[in-house]
Specification:
By secondary structure, the protein is an alpha+beta fold. The chain has a single domain, classed as Alpha-Beta Plaits (2-Layer Sandwich), CATH 3.30.70.1530. It comes from Caloramator quimbayensis.
């Protein structure tokens, strides 16, 4: 079961978070919210339920 751990406000923010999570070995799935095909919009960042705690620890260490 995949769980949303963050909603990114831009593609750049999503890519930064995705990279940080992947570097720490967390599986990541990205889901675009909305029907726009451009880079603007929201992105759901999902991780397996078993990795939610690890993902939150990593998210708190990311500076924006």
């Amino acid at each position: 079961m995949w769980t949303v751990v963050y909603i990114a406000q831009s593609r750049q923010e999503m890519e930064k978070i995705e990279k940080a999570l992947c570097e720490q070995g967390v599986l990541v799935k990205i889901k675009k919210i909305g029907k726009n095909n451009d880079d603007n919009g929201l992105y759901e960042i999902l991780v397996p339920k078993s990795e939610v705690d690890d993902a939150y620890i990593i998210l708190t260490s990311i500076t924006f």
